[in-house]
Each structure stands twice: as structure tokens, then as C-alpha cells.
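Intended use. Records like the one below are meant for learning the mapping from a protein sequence to its folded structure. Do not use them to infer anything beyond what is encoded.
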Amino acid sequence: MTTDVQAEKTIQITLSRSAPVRIKAKDWPQIASAKDWDNQYEFQANRTWSLRVRRHADGRTLVYGEFRSHFQQERDIVAGELVSLEETEAAIQRVAEELDRLHLARECISELPATEI
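Structure written out for the chain above:
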């Protein structure tokens, strides 16, 4: 008997101004992301930044990110927002600002699904 691990995977996401949320990964697919690090190669990095966007079928969007450091004097930062579809780009900007990595917002927004006009 085989089980789909991804279908069962639960993710806890820390939000900036409210309690964390727990989601089922299969119900909230990742639609955009951006990463940065402070060395030539990510596996050698002392500091890493990541920004992710997940969207539920009903249009709710989770925008979240993190800063991780291997230096003792630096604190990790996690940030996130649960927003409507219309607020996604603004939420990406705010979360990237909390991580002090505004260029990640541009990269992440460019990965969002195209809007038909």
C-alpha cells in the first residue's frame, strides 16, 4: 500500500500579526517564491532569506517568509500574512519589507500566475 506523503503533509506557518496557521499542503499549492543567501552557493550560506506564496482554491492567499542566520548574535525572523487574492502583491511587499529584502518582492511577484487582460 502506497501513501502520498505530500497529500498528508501539514505545514505550520507563522503570521506577523496573528496566531500561526496550520494548512494541508495539497490544499494550498505554492504559486510563487524567491530566495536569497549571503554566499556564492546556498549550501555555504551563513544567512538565508525566503519568500513564498500559497493559494487556496477559494482565493485566500498565504504570503510568508523567513530570515535564518547561523550567527549567534543575529535573530531569525519569520513573517506572514493571510490575505485575499486582491491583496497578494501588497502582502508580498510587506513581508519582504519585514525580512529587509525588498528585491525578493519583485522576484516573487514576477512568478505569480499571469493575469489575463
